[in-house]
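Bench notes, bay 3.
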Amino acid sequence: MRQLFFRLNRLLRQMVLFGSGFIVLGTAQASAMTADDFYHIYYHTPSYSAIVNDCTESASAVKTAASVSGANVKSGFIHLTNNGYSAAQAAGLIGNFQWESSPDLDPTTENGIGAYGIAQWLGDRQTNMRIWTAANGGTDSFDAQIRFVVYELNGDESAAKAKILETDTATDAALAVMQYYERPGNDGSQRDRIKNANDVFDKYSKLAGESSGITNSSYTPAGCPSTSNTSSPDCLNAEGTAKILCEAEKYNPVSYLEDSIAGHQGGEAWHKTCPTIDASCVLDCSGLVSVAVYDAFGNGKSWTTSTFLGDTSNWTEISASQARAGDLVIVEGGSHVEIIDHFQGNTIHTFGAHNSHVPQPQQVGPSSYYTRSNVVHYLRYVGKGAEASV
């Protein structure tokens, strides 16, 4: 797409289409125009639809320009900016999702080959999305799907995330999301994805970092009251002990350290030492679980890997067939704990604090290292607050 505009720029040289007439530019002005300048003029011309009809790309591939209104567009954009993406990068993601699903980001959108949801997940990626969202608010919940986007980009799609984070403009972000995350092939949709992204950026960039207030009117929580000042609003729709997983996931930037200060002083005290979640904060495997339980249910107790099993007032052992998102697996002969995300065959996808011998951000985060044969115990939280969430 970018090459197409460079060719047009060279051909027109001193003229740029605008409205029903022309803007005549001097040779120096035309030569100085960047691709992004040209995109901006192109996409903000009133005669956009007429230009589309003259384009060399297939007219059948052109969708109606997406609306930037709607609660899902706004809350999704803000949610992404609250999870490490710039306003331009968030707009690039949302603009692609509008093309993939619908202008208002309908989470139930399904195409003719079975691709589903706001990002039109297919195959193994759709399977993972369905498993994760079912445990975190519901498969047809927009809230759950936009949170899964963040989760997927932090895990299996981390290479795509790296490319997206390299971009500085909504245009470049839209192209990066298309090429590395959506990977649709040559479907002639570049123009509309870019237009969507720039429209979203123009309308919502000033809202970056505000509270997203993500909700889904079709999903009614089973009752997950916020019992801690540090509980994430995005986790209120998580059902049962899946809320532990949801709360743990916000600690992806934290560093690993096996120490008494790594979450074992109790959740409230730990948060006072770490008011801003970043690499200066430290957690170990059981400390992460302790802090996540505090965030989810307000239980200020802390545990080590060796004390979970004996604390029957807070933890109960379950079978492998009963295990679900938010439950724990004790592995490595009983010396390490991880939080279950989902199962894929014999592989257990987990979230945990791993070790300090790898670079950030891999010290705390998702993992698919363990299999069912590695598990010594499966445990479920049954302590304070759990009865209100089941």
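Next record in the batch:
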Amino acid sequence: MSRPLPGSLLLQPLHLGPTTHVWLARLDGVDEAVVIKRVADPDDRPARERLASEAERAAAVVHPDLLRPIAVLVDGPGPAVAYPYLSGGSLRTLLEHRGALVAGELVAILDPVARALTAWAATCDAHGDLKPENILLRDDGSPVVADAATPGHATPAYLDPAVAAGGRCSSRSDVFSLGVIAYEALTGRLPHRGPPAEVVALAAAGAHRDLASWPGVDLAMARVVESALAPEPARRPASPAAFVGALAAVVEPMTIVLPGPTPGAPRNVTRPGTETLEFGPRPPDATATDDPAPRWGWVLGASASAAAVLALAFLGPPEEPSGCTPPTVGPGTVAVDLDADGCDDLARWDGVVLAPADDLAASAGRLRLGGPGVQIRFGDWDGDGATTVAAYEPEVGLVRYLDDLADPTNERTEDAAPGGVAVVVEDGDGDRLEVRRR
């Protein structure tokens, strides 16, 4: 039960993190829903100060694609900040739904982001905490930039290694973050993975799988993204606008189209390394290594401390067949029909292995779904209300549907275009898998 907040009606929690809580709410006398961000513990003075600083910075810059607070409420000894509610999800929810974007869609999203960051830099220098969670989407799929970092805080997976080592956060720091976002959006994978200190060390060494080696990624596009990931700021494009301009120059103009909002944007979506943390210099003993043998595929809901996401649509759990109890999905788990009984079960999913969340609750065992180049997608392929698995192999242009996970040898296949991206498309008779060219 949340503590009351005078001047508002708290409707639904969107995110309950260790330091901040985010609620869908209504302000007194206002019909439109808003999102309210408040500290989890009113006695946590550093958290109160960070929230107040974040609101002040967000209010300082006026731009249509920057999220600005619309009200500040008194919340005990500190503030609670109200923001507009955007029901299109975020770039994170879109990537979780799609797995990856084609190059033109990526440019269409990053172009308004770069223009917003240009306006931001004129007043506040750098954003400092760009990540898919902080690129929100309107109903038409157009982006809005949110949640600029307070000094000394950022998300390790997207953090400029020069800043982590004590350097100044600048526009080139935001370019690095955009480079990570671009890499992730094109492949479905972060370039640097592991615990925070290891992630920063790998980024500082430039140690990651070259984007050009991923199937279907254009060489010219890969070179531009790799330039943004240079460990030394001076080797990167000078600004977000310069980076996105270089991306646009290698993409066919007719393909630069917004991908749209996230269909049925989920309430809580987390991803490894998406927590905003206090950071300091890189540990001197951290050793960069070559990118390990990749655990290919698509990571859905892998465990991590959730970053506060300001504007995720809450549409409730998907409908299930009569007599089924929908499982409660959290970090590192998915709802999927493991035993072909027409009801979704709770399963652990790390991007490669699917296993029952409770080994006693389902008859299915551990299934290794990942493999070289395989893209895993979850959907209701036969319209029975339960979720099963499809695996797209871009190297050979084949889609495999595993409708009965209790018997993975019982599968149906269909031919598809090679070298593409598998996208889940919703229609009235269930989901379908569509392979799109990169």
